Amino acid sequence: MEQKHTWWKEAVVYQIYPRSFADSNGDGVGDLNGITAKLDYLAGLGVTVLWLCPVYASPNDDNGYDISDYRAIQPEFGTMADFDRLLAQAHKRGLRVLMDLVVNHTSDEHRWFQASRSSRDNPYRDYYIWKDGKEGGTQPPNNWGSCFSGSAWEKDEATGQYYLHLFSKKQPDLNWENPKVREEIYDMMNWWCQKGIDGFRIDVAAFYAKSNFDDGRVAPGALYGDFSASCINQPRIHDYFREMNARVLSHYDVMTVGETGGVTPAQAVKYAGLDGGELSMVFQFEHVDAGERIVGKWTDRRPQMPELRRILNRWQLGLADKAWNSLYWNNHDQPRVVSRFGSDAPLWRTLSAKMLATCLYGMQGTPYLYQGEELGMTNVYFEHIEDYRDIEVLRAWEELRAAHKATDEQLLRYFAAIGRDNARTPMQWDTTANAGFSAGTPWIAVNKNYLSINAADEEKDPDSVLNYYKKLIALRRENPIFVYGGFVPLLEGDASVYAWQRRYEDRTLTVACNFTPDTVPCTLFDGAAGETLISNYHSRAAGVLQPYEARITLM
Ligand code: TEU
Ligand code: CA
Q1: Which of 66, 107, 147 best tests ligand 1's pocket when mutated (most atoms within 8 Å of CB)?
Q2: What tens digit of pLDDT does each residue of 163-200 get?
Q3: Which of 183, 315, 366, 508 is 20 to 30 A from residue 155's alpha carbon, by CA?
């Protein structure tokens, strides 16, 4: 099928982690009014859609991904009136707004779960997944481990049964088999759509359907079984998304992006096929999961470009004319891309951040920009466990130490390399106290490098990462080939250079990125009559790409 032209294919999405974006009242926590105050900055960047990580009422066990009321705003973030004002002010500037939809699980403090756990025969019991334990109820129903360490089952003494939580025990999984649960969710989604939001980013969208409750495979050295074979991409999931589409999404001009860890390109075509029966697009994880893992998800090894290329080319070609790709390096769960795939050493940071940007915006799909990525913000390199706030890191620290799976020093190295808090340190606005994020004490430490990496300085510097992003985003807006051009891989055996072409009508874009700090041979741009649209170097050298050089030409 041909790619039909739609606004969400042409969009550039900017992801906001509200806790860490801008604090308007000095309590150390970013908030809605803080975001509203920065809308001109965002519009100036050229992005067209904002995605807000959860701003709903939540006890904050997992920073808002544990929701206790889907129709209320977290008081730390402001009020519903503040939200309405943010939405109106964003729309006034031509910025659309996506909400985060977290409906694989609720908070254990949600009134549904409070009722559900109160007795075995209350009307909300089947809103969640309850099972008898094994061995006279003393052992969990199966061996599954939770994403945040420990068993995925918690025994609830009130009724003697176990409930399922694939994430923390304060995030009980909803029972999607129950049509009443689905109706409640569709009602709530319709309520937000009627408020005028422009779509949803859908949290752990591949996990809703559970096919069986058999023990999972235990990886070598792992403490628990893997739930994937029973809980990820199970056949019923597509019934749910087709139903959600019919009951909610198809009634509005909205976009959706499903967070689908564990999908292959073939599965993505089912979720995000061009027939539009389910979702607009999905987030795949293969490229951010590249590279060797040491203990569970933890590692400090760096992935190599050829593996990244194999993965990304497979997605570009696998979805071509069948579905639509999302393009991202960063989000609130990932380390900073310049630290992981580029180099944050002062000599290379700006060049490699621009190279990575060129690479992403040169592909086909909708790009997602995570707050601070446009500045080339880096990992924070916390040295002490006390610096961390993320439940995933804190639980892994406890569990892996107790089980002697790694030394303290190794764990701190892994967390520094890939821990989620690397993405969650405050946005670096300027050189004033706390990087201009807050007049109070930030809930998590500011990266010490804010004096040299911040938006105010980068606005003024024509060679900054920020101004490079503005240029890339403008190029995409002005040249439909960036959005709709087909993808043709080049130099597939090269160890250092990732290159491809895009073709649209009678034009050709050539994109090449040197992923190394070395000067490497490359003749792609020699003698070609193409016009350079963008590069992170002012001049070219014949026969080579310079360290971390990236270039896009148009013929
Ligand atoms: O993340 C889901 C997910 O599978 C992972 O990315 C997860 O963050 C972790 O890295 C597992 O090792 C989503 C949200 O993006 C994340 O912030 C939430 O913690 C999680 O769902 C639960 O709602
Ligand atoms: Ca605040």
Answers
A1: 147
A2: 999 999 999 999 999 999 999 999 999 999 999 999 99
A3: 183
- Tokens encoding 284: 């795949």
Q: Cβ(65) to ligand 1 under 6 A?
A: yes
CATH 3.20.20.80 segments of the chain: 13-106+179-470
Q: What is the largest CA-CA distance in the chain?
A: 77
The pair of three-digit structure tokens given for residue 467, joined into one six-digit string: 């101004």
Whether ligand 1 lies within 6 angstroms of the CB of 173 is answered as no
What's the predicted TM-score (pTM) here? 0.98
pLDDT tier, 1 (very low <50, low <70, confident <90, very high otherwise): low
Match 């990580």 to its residue by tokens. 53
pLDDT score recorded for residue 527:
85
CATH of domain 13-106+179-470: 3.20.20.80
How far is Cα 304 from Cα 528, in angstroms, rounded to an integer?
29
- CATH value of 111-164 in 2.40.110.10, 3.30.457.10, 3.40.50.300, 3.90.400.10: 3.90.400.10
User: What fold, for 486-554?
Assistant: Immunoglobulin-like (2.60.40)
What 155-162 contacts at long range (C-beta under 8 Å, 24+ apart), as own/partner pairs, is: 156/117, 158/117, 158/118, 158/119, 159/117, 159/119, 159/120, 159/130, 161/120, 161/130, 161/131, 161/132, 161/133, 161/137, 162/130, 162/131, 162/132, 162/133
